[in-house]
């Protein structure tokens, strides 16, 4: 039986582990992929206090080593569900199950998808959710970016320096993102902005070759692209917890700054919590808070 | 078996004409998930004497990446008798790698 089981080894989860271990609690971290979370895709972090420049990989590795050094147990298994038991919580994973007196949910966010057929199949074969990760592989190719927010604008600008042509596809006739970025994009000769259109089909044999666009009048046309960068935001993946804790209408776990969920002994930390600002520093802050509250909860159990 | 550095000049010899099965890892220094994968590949190499692993840096070997339609890294391509037989994109643990090469 663990004192604290943390689901997710991103910055929030690993910070919670550090706080838990420093209070000499028995801590297990359950992670589906590898440690680090979203931050490992960030090339250069410039806004974390005391670090002028650090790569996301180095940041995550330092945090992981710190948590390990303090005696945190890690298992790399996918959490499928959590269950309330009489005197504890059960965390069920792809490989087994673990019992903990308290649980911290720190599963972060996942990419929002278009929900099109072949979208999943073509991930890594033309479909991407990260321009800075995969952009370099599209030198002199034609690509499309979907979205209307700052990420889509930044992605289009970044890709315009690598790809031959960049189509920026937006479902409205104006951008809600930064207007300066829009002006910079309009000055780029190889960027074509396609307004009032959505991607309705992803086409190709063994990799992406074409996409179908549908405009607001319902007319369709196909364009040839090797890359489709989907930048329509991120969403929480809290569905597996919805029978145990309360979610808001957007799927975030409802909790205030104290990170208490609607269920006693279950806490939330990081981007999957209802909050105003989702940044590295607020994720780590949540980790500290959730662990501290979990420790308080454990004290009251005894 | 140790991990071999793959380049345009030795790709034919080391991969396409190889008698053994070859796992090619397309990667880059700036890619976080690639750096996460590196120690897992080393574990795989240590545990499998007969498996040849070739590491290709896409910044130095852009032509190879284009030729093999590598659109995201890390990208693992499994070759047998000069032909691609399996492919995987993204991080994999050494256990998952074992499964991938064993399939």
Could you please describe the fold and organization of this structure?
The complex is a heterodimer of chains A (302) and B (103). Chain A is α/β, with parallel strands linked by helices. Chain A has two domains: 178 residues, FAD/NAD(P)-binding domain, CATH 3.50.50; 104 residues, FAD/NAD(P)-binding domain, CATH 3.50.50. Chain A has six helices and 17 strands. The longest helix of chain A has 22 residues. The two termini of chain A are 14 Å apart. The model of chain A has no long low-confidence stretch (mean pLDDT 96). Chain B is an alpha/beta fold. Chain B has one domain: 3-Layer(aba) Sandwich (Glutaredoxin), CATH 3.40.30.10. Chain B has a five-stranded mixed beta sheet with strand order 1-3-2-4-5. In chain B, a hairpin with a 2-residue loop joins β4 and β5. In chain B, α2 packs across α4. In chain B, 35% of the residues are buried.
Parts with pLDDT < 50 across at least 5 consecutive residues of chain A: none
What would you say the CATH architecture of the largest domain in chain A is?
3-Layer(bba) Sandwich
Q: Note the quaternary state here.
A: heterodimer
Order of helices and strands of chain B: EHEHEHEEH
Number of helices of chain B: 4
Write the CATH architecture name of chain B: 3-Layer(aba) Sandwich
Which regions of chain B have little confidence, pLDDT < 50, spanning 5+ residues? none
Largest sheet of chain A: 7 strands, mixed
Topology at a glance:
The complex is a heterodimer of chains A (302) and B (103).
Chain A: E1 2-7, H1 11-22, E2 27-30, H2 56-69, E3 73-75, E4 79-84, E5 89-93, E6 97-105, E7 109-111, E8 127-128, H3 131-134, E9 142-146, H4 150-160, E10 165-169, H5 179-187, E11 191-194, E12 197-203, E13 210-215, E14 220-224, E15 227-230, E16 234-236, E17 266-268, H6 280-301
Parallel strand pairs in A: 1-2, 1-6, 2-3, 6-17, 8-15, 9-10, 9-15, 10-11
Antiparallel strand pairs in A: 4-5, 5-6, 7-16, 12-13, 13-14
Chain B: E1 3-5, H1 11-16, E2 22-27, H2 32-47, E3 52-57, H3 62-67, E4 75-80, E5 83-89, H4 94-102
């Amino acid at each position: 039986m663990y004192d604290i089981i943390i689901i997710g080894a991103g910055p929030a989860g690993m910070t919670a582990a550090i706080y838990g271990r420093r209070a000499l609690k028995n801590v297990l971290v359950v992670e589906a992929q590898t440690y680090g979370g979203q931050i490992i895709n960030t090339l250069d972090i410039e806004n974390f206090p005391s670090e002028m420049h650090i790569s996301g990989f180095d940041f995550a590795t330092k945090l992981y080593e710190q948590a390990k050094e303090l005696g945190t147990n890690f298992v790399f298994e996918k959490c499928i569900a959590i269950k309330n038991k009489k005197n504890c919580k059960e965390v069920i994973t792809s490989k087994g199950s673990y019992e903990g007196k308290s649980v911290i949910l720190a599963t972060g966010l996942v990419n929002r998808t278009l929900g099109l057929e072949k979208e999943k199949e073509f991930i890594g074969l033309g479909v991407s959710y990260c321009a800075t990760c995969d952009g370099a592989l599209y030198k002199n190719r034609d690509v499309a970016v979907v979205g209307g927010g700052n990420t889509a604008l930044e992605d289009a600008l970044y890709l315009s320096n690598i790809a031959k042509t960049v189509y920026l596809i937006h479902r409205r006739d104006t951008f809600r993102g930064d207007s300066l970025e829009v002006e910079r994009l309009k000055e780029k000769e190889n960027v074509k902005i396609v307004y009032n259109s959505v991607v309705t089909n992803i086409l190709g044999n063994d990799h992406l070759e074409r996409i179908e666009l549908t405009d607001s009048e319902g007319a369709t046309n196909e364009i040839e692209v090797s890359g489709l960068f989907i930048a329509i935001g991120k969403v929480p993946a809290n569905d597996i917890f919805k029978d145990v804790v309360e979610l808001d209408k957007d799927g975030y776990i409802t909790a205030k700054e104290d990170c208490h969920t609607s269920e006693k002994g279950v806490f939330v930390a990081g981007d999957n919590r209802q909050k105003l600002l989702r940044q590295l520093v607020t994720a780590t802050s949540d980790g500290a808070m959730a662990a501290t509250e979990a420790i308080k909860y454990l004290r009251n159990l005894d | 078996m140790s991990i071999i550095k793959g380049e345009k000049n030795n790709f034919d010899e080391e991969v396409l004409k190889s008698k053994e099965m070859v796992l090619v890892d397309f990667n880059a220094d700036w890619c976080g998930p690639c750096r996460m994968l590196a120690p897992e590949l080393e574990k795989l190499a240590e545990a499998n004497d007969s498996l040849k692993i070739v590491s290709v840096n896409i910044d130095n070997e852009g032509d190879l990446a284009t030729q093999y339609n590598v659109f995201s890294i890390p990208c693992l391509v499994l070759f047998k008798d000069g032909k691609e037989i399996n492919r995987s994109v993204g991080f994999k643990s050494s256990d998952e790698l074992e499964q991938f090469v064993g399939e």
